[in-house]
Amino acid sequence: MLKRNVDIRRVYVLPGRTDMRRGATGLAALVRLQYGLDPLEVGTLFLFCGRKKDRIKGIMYEGDGFVLVSKQLSIGRYCWPRTADEAMPLTWDEYDRLMDGFTIESTIRK
After folding, report:
1. Which of helix, strand or coil describes residue 107?
2. Closest CA to 81 of 9, 27, 17
3. Would you call 6 exposed, middle or buried from its count of C-beta atoms within 10 A (0-12, 13-18, 19+)?
């Protein structure tokens, strides 16, 4: 359960396939070892996606422990980046598009 007074300040999409059987500790180790990021940064949400792309998991450190969240789509799949070498921070607009089932990056050219 998320604490009411902890704000999500930053969101990272961790590209590629992640073993969705991992818990908070295993995902935190992946954040540190594979991406070189600090999983203990309060208010940072790290998002992961599995092979089927129909569910995502997220972890966030609240200062006294991790919160593990997950979402499974009943219809459709997430458009998840697979080939990037580094974690990708999201803007709130990109996060909203992801949660609404659209691609993270806008396909409309400026």
Report:
1. coil
2. 17
3. middle
Task: For residue 98, give both structure tokens.
Answer: 């992801």
What are residue 66's DSSP bridge partners? 61
Residues in contact with 39: Cβ distance below 8 Å, sequence separation at least 6, in sequence order: 27, 28, 29, 31, 32, 46, 59, 61, 66
pLDDT in tens, 6-48: 788 899 999 888 999 999 999 999 999 988 999 999 989 999 9
Please state the pTM of the whole predicted model: 0.83
**How far apart (Å, rounded) are the C-alpha atoms in residues 34 and 87?**
9
| Distance of alpha carbon 104 from alpha carbon 96, whole angstroms | 9
